[in-house]
Every structure is written in C-alpha cells, then in structure tokens.
Amino acid sequence: MGVRHLSNLQQRVIAAIIAVPFLLFCVLYSDYTFLVLFLVIGVLAQLEFYKLVGSISDNLPLTFYGTFCGVVMHVLAFFIEKGDLAYQYYYILSPLLTFIFFIKLYKSKDEKPFKNIAYTFLGIIYVALPFTLFTVLAFIKNDTYDPNIVLGCLFLLWSSDSGAYFAGTKFGKTKLFERVSPKKSWEGSIGGLVTAMIVATIISKYYTNYSAFQWYAIGVIIVVAGTYGDLVESLFKRSINIKDSADTIPGHGGFLDRFDGLLLSIPFIIPFVKLFP
Fold first, then answer.
1. DSSP bridge pairs for 177
2. Distance (Å, rounded) from C-alpha 255 to C-alpha 253?
3. pLDDT digits 0-9 by tens, 113-132
4. Burial (CB count <10 Å: 0-12, 13-18, 19+), residue 132
C-alpha cells in the first residue's frame, strides 16, 4: 500500500518523521546548511506558484527569471546580513528586477505582457521575499547566525498548525471565513493559539536570548498572520479552482501549502523584533 492510500493524518505523521529531523539538522549544523535548505524550499515554492499561475490560459509569467531573481535576492541577503558583503550590494536587485520589463518587451507571443509582468513580480514579492526575510531574521542580532530564532518560529508555526488541525477536526463548528476556506473554524484557530502559547512558554525557558514576552508576541503574530497567510493562499487556489498547490509533501500538499503561514508572518516578526528588542 502506497503512502497516498493512507489517511491524511497518517501521511502527515510520516512526512513529519522524515522531514523534521532533516530540517532540524540543517538549521543547527551551520548557517550554510540553513541557507541551502531554505533556498531550495523557496525555489520549489516559487516554482509551484508560477506553475499554478501558468495553468490559467494566457498567463505567461517569467518562471525561470522570476525564480532566478528570488535566488539572487536570497543569497545576497545571506552574505550581506552575515557581514561578508557590504550593504550596498542590495542595489544589484534594482537593475535585476527592472530587466523583467525588458524581457517581456521581446516576448511577441505574449498578448497580455503587463498582466504577466505583474504575476512575475507577485511570485517574487509573495514567495521569494518572505523566505529571504527569514534569512534576515536569522542574522538580526549582531550579524551572527542564530538558529534559536529560526527554530522558535518553526516550532510555533508547527504547533499552531497542529493545534488548529486537531481542534478544528474535533470541535470545529463556527466557520472562520467560509467564503474562502469552508473547513476553517474559530475553534481550530483558538486551538492553534493555545498550542502556540504552550510552546512559547517552553521555548522561552531554553531560548533565553529572547524574552518570554517576545516569544508570546511572536507566537501571536504567527497564529494571526499565519492564519491570514493560509486564507490568502486558499483565496489564490480557489481563484484557479485547485485544492492543493502540489502533492509534493504527503498530507500537506505542496511547499506553498506547508509554508503559507510563514509567508505573511515573517514580514511582521522582523519589525517587532527590531522595535522591541
């Protein structure tokens, strides 16, 4: 019997048993393994996004160039935030992104070039930028790689997702946003919040470079912004009439499905950590 014939919960458990130890190893081993891991995840998620967009007639985003821009942005952020490159190297992104317009100028078969330029930029802003910001977050204190903030955010994200899944499955009755995601409930969201707060309490005892208040606040940000991130992706998928962004990860769908909560929460976590050190 293949993995696809198992229940959704069984698939989730198997995927976690395989993926989580590998992810933890990459984050803890070194900053370079962290870079490679999330660079690959970011690329796969961005390719998923462009594939979904391209599945609609007349949509022709610049899949490979847009993904290339995402890679350059991510790698630049890593070496700049690490202190190996000067801050001025961020200016490379300005001409790099402008080339999107030049490339589309020569795509004679594209009948709606500006719509597809917009989709290309959306893939960079919606997918590549948050993964880049995750790398910025990892170096946010004194240009030193901090796996604790990375793992803390991941633990809070996973606990929130798991709590919402089990609470929603067991108690979910009150629809959270039925027009966009009929299965999501307030009970599930509350379960996710409670679980995240419990995990934040545990994290604050071990990852003491951030205060308990900061961990609780980060947990709330991940639950709230992460829920919106999930809803935004659901809205996107409903607009093109699909259920999952892909079937790469058994029980979870694609990389966009697995990390959608991170995409909209990281842009809020960074200013919080900076403004309330």
1. 181
2. 7
3. 899 999 999 999 999 999 99
4. buried
Q: Partners of 249 in the beta sheet?
A: 253
Q: Are the beta carbons of 127 and 263 closer than 8 angstroms?
A: yes
Residues pairing with 253 in the sheet: 249
User: Whose CA is closest to 35, among 93, 84, 79?
Assistant: 79
181: β partners: 177
First to last CA, the chain: 51
Question: DSSP string of 125-147?
Answer: IIIIHHHHHHHHHHTTTTT---H
pTM to 2 decimal places: 0.88
Helical segments of 207-246, H only: 212-239
Alpha carbon separation from 271 to 91, 242, 265, 267, 268 (Å, rounded)? 21, 34, 11, 7, 6
Tell me which residue of 234, 232, 223, 233 sits closest to 269, measured CA to CA.
Answer: 223
At 256, the amino acid letter reads L
Which amino acid is residue 121, in one-letter code? Answer: F
pLDDT class of 1 with cuts at 50, 70, 90: very low
- Angle of helix 147-171 relative to helix 212-239, nearest 10 degrees? 60
Q: Which residues contact 125 (CB under 8 A, 6 or more apart)?
A: none
Residues 196 and 159: beta-carbon distance below 8 Å = yes
